[in-house]
User: Fold these one by one.
Assistant:
Number 1:
Amino acid sequence: MRAAGTRLEHGLGSRAQPRQAGGRAAGARDWASPPAGREKCQIRRGKGSLLGICGQPPRPCAPCDVMSNSWRWPAAPALLLAGPAVPRPLLPWPPAPLSMKVFRRKALVLCLGYVLLLLLTMLNLLDYKWHKEPQQCNEPPPARRAPSSPQQPHFQPRSDIRSLYRPPAPPPRQRQLVYVFTTWRSGSSFFGELFNQNPEVFFLYEPVWHVWQKLYPGDAVSLQGAARDMLSSLYRCDLGVFQLYNTAGAGKNLTTLGIFGAATNKVICSSPLCPAYRKEVVGMVDDKVCKKCPPQRLSLLQDECLKYHTLVIKGVRVFDLAVLAPLLQDPALQLKVIHLVRDPRAVASSRIKSRHGLIRESLQVVRSRDPRIHRMPLLDASHKLNSKKEGGGGSDYHALGAMEVICSSMAKTLQTALRPPDWLKNNYLVVRYEDLVVDPIKTVRQVYGFVNLVVSPEMEKFALNMTSGPGYSSKPFVVSARNATQAVSAWRTALSFQQIKQIEEYCHQPMAVLGYERVNSPEEVKDLSKTLLRKPRL
């Protein structure tokens, strides 16, 4: 409360008329009517009373009634009691009333928005109806057709119905994956050329060689899992798996020329990776020319792999077909296996001939022999040391010893093929090397039909020329044209009778299934007019 004599500004209106009888007590006034103006009043503090100079009791301003737009004053205060004045807070001036124009403006904007939305919806419906059927405004009306005969009523399908029943697009061509399952010295290099020369085939020559070299001196059986994992990656064209088994040294990236067999690979030696040859031209490549090709990144070879619909891998380091069972059961791969076999006596003869080139592989295979199995002595001591003319020597011991493991694994595979499980049915084909060199055209057609390839005249001519050479090649690791008769019967003059009987003891089970007859005397071996082939059981 301010001191006595302090001036306050307060809005007061004109006095209203006092009520009639029955009204309020004396001194009470009704201030319901709005003030006519604003008057300034002075409030003085008197002795024991508080009086207004204007003759009216002081009171605060009342807020205005927004809805009625009129002033409403509070009721007149009661009679002032004697005593000190009680301070009263000053109320602020009432805010300005909210104009109705704001509500009208917002309502108008909202209505315009709804009208615009409705208009756009109608235009969209009209546009859809307009484009649903093509409009032909400038074209002349179609000529009237003659009425069709009752026997052949004419039906004119609607265009929209015809579009719904269009023939579906043909599915993408499924890739054909093939594994040539064989062993060393079985004619696999020549057989692999039937795919390497095909312009529609991406061929890899013994890629598991990298696994054996990197994990040496591991035995053959312990490396089977790593070999299967590598094949699984290669069949998906993931050629980066070669880098895992890179033997070039740490920090050096493997290139296309570092892959085993790159010097004779038709894809690596042909355009676009190398300008030396063209893949569509059937013919052997010169390894000396291919070695001069520029080394390319494996990613470029991987891109080439993805372009081919047929991928063929030839390998000699997977011994048991059961190792490939997870790949054959994978529906994403749809793998097929071609089992290339050869007379075990011819295989052993070729291994002895190339014993120095296969000594490392022979040691890895011999380490896989089961020590619990009883074996006959391979050769007597005098033969191993002195009779090198007949193929003796220390290297022959490992070459012939490897045949025990090879034939044992072959026997397991053939037993599985005789009673094939579901994952092997229609996915397995046995091809005898002897049938290939004697009748190449028939065998090539059979093999190509199994893997859904077409035999071109160029491929038939190539296979015929490779089996009509002048003689038997003296180079064990070179693919060349050779005489078919000499290729089939060369072992009969190269092995001793003792060696033949030793091999027959190891391999009599697969020989019986594949149709290779055993010999009973040295004279029977030397009689080349007598064939030792019969129809196989597969």
Number 2:
Amino acid sequence: MKKLILTMAICAGSYIVGAQTYHQSQFYSTPLLVNPAAAGNASGPYRFAANYRSQWRSTGSPYTTFTASGDAQVLKTASGVLGLGLTFLNDKAMDGVVQTNSISFGTGYHIALDADNVQRLGIGFQGTYNERRVDFARLQFENQFNGEYNPALPIGEELGSGKKQYFDLNAGALYSFSLEDKSLFAGVSMFNILKQEEGYMTEQFKAPSLISVMAGGDMSVGFNNSLYFSGNYRKQGTSNELTLGAAWGMFIDQTGFTSFRLGMWHRVNDALIPYAGVTYKGLQVGTSFDYNVSKQKTQSQLRNTFEISVVYTAEDKDQLMRLIQWY
């Protein structure tokens, strides 16, 4: 039983390897956690974003992820934009027995590729402090059963402190094209560059670096509609993941700054992800639900994953943008 419970804790912890391996379906609503170069590349002077994800809720012990970020354009000239960004992440599994906290601070600089600053090429870097921990006091072990469970009995094995702190680096590059009624972007990023030891028990392991490629666009279609599309490819070690999708937006007022959006994304060989959201001026709220289509029906039926995101982008008084960039 001791080995079984430890295995369960380790498996839960495998989903929580720090900010570089978090998993969210609405990747387009967490710009700084997808590409460090996104810092300062908003359609306004500053931006805030938050995302909450809960999966396996039907098991009674959901795995949850909360992220929050903020970035601002601290220097804007005709030749480029300098941005700063701050992110926070918290992952919990097994009712908080296993969890990770991560704080990242980064900067991005976006060089103008034309006189009108329509096209930009940016690079960005993040420094990250990560803390992983498992609360062994909340687990039950075989040696603690003597006719009945007695938590005062020794475990009989050295497990270590159950905590691990480490620093890491992330980097990315991003190309963007932005007009009043359309925008395009493409970028690549690398997380966990230092490959620090991340184990929180006596045994240690090094997670491989994560490579993330993301691209997409947003454009007006006709008079009262818009189309958004995006894709994200992630590779870490032998694991890889591809998510593709699009959303249709319908403007519901005369100004064109308020819209309702419906869409669908597909995480290949894993899940369909219907999306619904609204935008009002600089505020964007979106919800999604993962419907599993993988062959692992027994496990996938327990996922029951729900996600909600909130993004606010301040108005740029120097440039009127009808569409809010989704990255």
Number 3:
Amino acid sequence: MAAAGGERGRTSFQRRPGAGPRPSALPGTRPSLRHGQLLLSSGLPSLDCVLGGGIAVGTLLLIEEDKYGLYSNLLFKYFLTEGIVCGHDLFVASAKEHPDNILKELPAPLLDDTYRKELGDEAAVVNSEDFQDSMKIAWRYQNLPKMETSPTTYTKFGHYYDISKKMPPELCQSVKRHSFYLHEELSFEPKMKAWNMNSGYARLLQSIQRIISQEGFDGSDPQKKQRNVLRIGIQSLGSILWGDDVCCSDTPEDPHSLTKFLYVLRGLLRKSLSACIITVPSHLVQNKAIMERVTNLSDMVVGLESFIGSERETNPLYKDYHGLVHVRQIPRLNSLICDVSDTKDLAFRLKRKLFTIERLHLPPDLSDTVSRASKQDLAGSAKLLSSGCGAVAMGKKHLDF
């Protein structure tokens, strides 16, 4: 009887003999709980939170450069530095500065203990500011909950970097790097043209396609060796240095060259284990219709608006920030809707060692003096409201319907 009960308790499932172990996850990636896509970090955890958890493998992130390109260049370097820390292969393309010089200027990674110390220093500064504000703010507002500025918390996915220090050369050389410098490439074959676009874009696409196929990043081709992720970074695409005149004329000679490049590039990304970041000087593009098409051909679009040279730089309301972050587009991957963030008012600031994206919140109006005219206006409005809307207003103030 016991034997019969034991036989009934057994399961009929048997593991197939030829089935091997589960494939190991790609380094530096994690699956999304929302749409199941593999995600990798942009190098800035607060930006990962804005993008819905990170950058999906096979997608394109477009960064609209700020006026002077200072902060967009930081995001570009964060993306590459995160790839080195995670052991990903890099492909850096530029027509402005040599890719080797870009890799030499990457920030150094912060260890866990160092980052916690940095957070402690920042918290001490914030607490001292809160203590000073408590002497000025009204007592009824002192017990209200504090505004959570950072949209994310520290996690193992994504790292933090010290922009005041450079990455050690031995760490940068530990990964495989590929570079594309336009001036060197055009000197080899200056008149090459394919896909009905200018020679710079065509040459860049051929280089990306060759690396994806030869280095084993093609997802449709079975690979026996351990797979890895390719991070592609393209700096200032669409500028005059790339041989494109979209930033110089409202009616360029070849208005579809940039959009064709993005269309072909997205096709290469979709079938490969790669992710791409592109910075574009959108404020220099003369024809806004071209910029709209560029936005539609990108998976994610984030714009940076710097306060340098603007009225907001001296405005006391924005004294804690260095610019605004505009999320233009979020991808819809394996779902009908995109992962919308809980806030749309975002700003960035450059701290002593860290670059962060935070929720934009303005301080309360703590002005000590209120004009007598405004007090009289409030008193007159109160009298009119107490007398009823049908009453005739006395004096100079009238109700407008």
